[in-house]
Amino acid sequence: MSRTLNWQLAGAEVVLHGDCALFYPAESALLVADTHFGKAALMRRRGLAVPSGQSRDDLHRLTNLLEEFNPQRLIVLGDFFHHRPMPGEPFLDMFPGWLAQHRAVSVEAVVGNHDRHAAGVDIGLRWHDHLDLGPFRLRHEPEQVPGRHVLAGHLHPVLTLQVAADRLRAPVFWFRDQVSVLPSFGALTGGWDLPRTAEGRTVLVVEGELFQGPD
Prior knowledge:
GO molecular function, one term: endonuclease activity
Pfam family, one: Metallophos
EC number: 3.1.-.-
Protein name: Ligase-associated DNA damage response endonuclease PdeM
Oligomer: single chain
Keywords: Endonuclease, Hydrolase, Ligase, Nuclease
């Protein structure tokens, strides 16, 4: 049981973290997927009684990761936004100050399907259609790319384990030969149930601790 786990992937050394992050030391790059900033604000506008503070809490989690790994780059693997943000939303008010606190880090994002709704919103991010780092292709959708190992998000994978009356549903890192998927980082993102028959290996995230999944 640990908050970090050293992992070999496509011949490279990476570090998995129990806050749903992956650190690639060779490129000093910290990766997370599917932050979906602004989702809580949208739900409140639609009349749902969702507590405020999701964006603040998720930015605080990112700060803790930056302090732990001291990366040169923070890269979000798509769906940085959940929707096109409205003026005055808490995230838009907080993010410039947060960026200013972390000037030494290049904060970047791969364009995800939700980010296309936010075209033209300038908040100081570097946007990419995709990125190549070492053996990896960083993209949002988990689709194979010849000659690269794809690191992606989009699916929000979770695994459900049950023994008698005890049931656990946990986010997972899902590793396959050519494509691996990070768990979603955002607090309100939900999850897609990974079939127990799915190929590959999994690492479960349970209350910030990492456990290798069943074979």
